[in-house]
């Protein structure tokens, strides 16, 4: 499977200017490709092919005075920008035909230099390399300093350079991992666990363990409100407003980074300790429309479940997702009697049939495990028929930073 490994970059002033040119040229080519397709659609003509766009928007455009500056950056960056436009249209049409899962996608839009995220991609034929001194040597940019937090397991197939809203630069490498080697890294275990995700506690496990909810956004709200007020009082277009915008972006980045780190550590721990994991298929989109929306987004359940999914596939674990309409909070995990719905303020209840006193969340986690039918043996094989490691979509350039800290 493919994963992304991301590392912080520290380009100097000259390299930052070269990266800015590359970002701008890639953005112009992408917008030209979208405009060419839209013009063809309005004129009732067939869409231009990828070869035609490459010849007209890159090769021939470099010969004109208006686009001569496209020759200042690597041609691979421009070609990959065209590929991104093609992929955006493929995903759009697949969504229209119902062939793509999830919500309906809109048609590709023009990119702006004011977008919070800028990126370019170098494939193997761009002849980028990692120098003996540990720097990332990029064509027409130079050898950029990298903060290596760990060693790359194999030779990367491509690298994406990303600039975020705070102005930080990252190198995101695509790595083809060896499933056999990855599974050998995890110790054998015969444990299985059910997980009930919530807001009071982020996760309650079927063995009774309760993992508190860090509430990163709630804890940072006071500082965020202050920085947002300062931003609103600055004159639009002024340098002080640009500085205030960076303060807001940094405050939000700290929340995002802390939440992602928490999800990575917890998901890695659960994967390493358990052969089988059962979770509930939560409707995060639906819950985000309720009065609990801010707390739901603060918890980040969707990101956590994505991490569990790809790590389970990578390390040969079994991840089972049960239906969201399973009455896990209404059923007694001891005798199996359904005791009816209960309001959210009821955190402990007694079964009317067997008299067992239940903790609401622990009981739900036990029922999730039972509904998944998880039973594993010491040979690492799931006993429950049909349970297979969960699948994960192939990593793409827009997937960063998902999986960027694969453990």
Walk me through the topology.
Blueprint (H helix, E strand, L loop, with lengths): L1 E9 L2 H30 L7 H10 L15 H22 L21 E6 L5 E2 L5 E3 L3 E6 L10 E6 L5 E8 L2 H7 L6 E6 L3 E5 L4 E3 L3 H17 L6 H35 L2 E5 L3 H4 L5 H7 L1 H14 L3 E5 L25 E3 L6 E3 H13 L35
Parallel strand pairs: 8-11, 11-12
Antiparallel strand pairs: 1-5, 1-7, 2-6, 3-4, 4-5, 6-7, 8-9, 9-10, 13-14
Helix pairs in contact: 1-3, 2-3, 5-6, 6-9
Q: Describe it for me?
A:
- By secondary structure, the protein is α+β, with helices and mostly antiparallel strands.
- The chain contains ten helices and 14 strands.
- It has helices at 13-42, 50-59, 75-96, 179-185, 216-232, 239-273, 284-287, 293-299, 301-314, 360-372, and strands at residues 2-10, 118-123, 129-130, 136-138, 142-147, 158-163, 169-176, 192-197, 201-205, 210-212, 276-280, 318-322, 348-350, 357-359.
- The protein has a seven-stranded antiparallel sheet. Strands 10-9-8-11-12 form a five-stranded mixed sheet, with helices on both faces.
- Helix 5 (216-232) runs antiparallel to helix 6 and helix 6 (239-273) crosses helix 9.
- The longest helix has 35 residues, at 239-273.
């Amino acid at each position: 499977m493919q994963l992304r490994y991301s590392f912080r970059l520290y380009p100097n002033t000259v390299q930052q200017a070269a990266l800015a040119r590359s970002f701008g040229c890639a953005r112009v080519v992408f917008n030209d490709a979208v405009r060419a397709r839209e013009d063809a659609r309005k004129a009732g003509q067939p869409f231009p092919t990828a070869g035609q766009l490459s010849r007209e928007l890159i090769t021939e455009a470099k010969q004109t005075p208006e686009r001569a500056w496209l020759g200042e950056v690597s041609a691979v960056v421009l070609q990959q920008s065209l590929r991104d436009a093609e992929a955006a249209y493929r995903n759009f049409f697949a969504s229209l035909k119902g062939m793509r899962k999830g919500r309906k996608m809109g048609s590709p839009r023009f990119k702006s230099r004011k977008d919070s995220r800028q990126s370019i991609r170098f494939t193997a034929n761009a002849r980028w390399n990692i120098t003996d001194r540990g720097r990332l040597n990029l064509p027409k940019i130079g050898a950029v300093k990298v903060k290596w937090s760990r060693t790359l397991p194999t030779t990367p197939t491509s690298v994406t350079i990303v600039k975020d809203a705070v102005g930080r630069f990252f190198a995101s490498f695509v790595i083809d991992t060896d499933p056999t080697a990855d599974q050998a890294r995890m110790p054998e275990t015969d444990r299985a666990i059910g997980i009930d995700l919530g807001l009071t506690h982020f996760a309650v496990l079927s063995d009774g363990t309760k993992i508190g909810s860090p509430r990163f956004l709630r804890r940072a709200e006071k500082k965020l409100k202050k920085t947002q007020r300062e931003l609103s009082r600055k004159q639009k277009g002024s340098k002080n407003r640009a500085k205030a915008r960076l303060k807001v972006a940094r405050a939000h980045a700290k929340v995002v980074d802390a939440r992602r780190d928490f999800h990575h550590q917890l998901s890695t721990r659960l994967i390493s300790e358990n052969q089988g994991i059962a979770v509930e298929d939560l409707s995060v989109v639906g819950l985000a429309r309720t009065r609990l929306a801010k707390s739901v987004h603060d918890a980040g359940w969707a990101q956590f479940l994505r991490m569990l999914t790809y790590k389970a596939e990578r390390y040969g674990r079994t991840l089972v997702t049960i239906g969201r309409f399973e009455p896990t909070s209404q059923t007694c995990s001891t005798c199996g009697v359904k005791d009816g719905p209960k309001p959210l303020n009821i955190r402990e209840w007694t079964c009317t049939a067997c008299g067992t006193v239940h903790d609401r969340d622990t009981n739900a986690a036990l029922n999730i495990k039972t509904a998944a039918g998880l039973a594993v043996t010491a040979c690492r094989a799931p006993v429950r028929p049909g349970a297979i490691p969960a699948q994960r979509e192939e990593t793409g350039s827009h997937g960063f930073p998902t999986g960027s800290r694969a453990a």
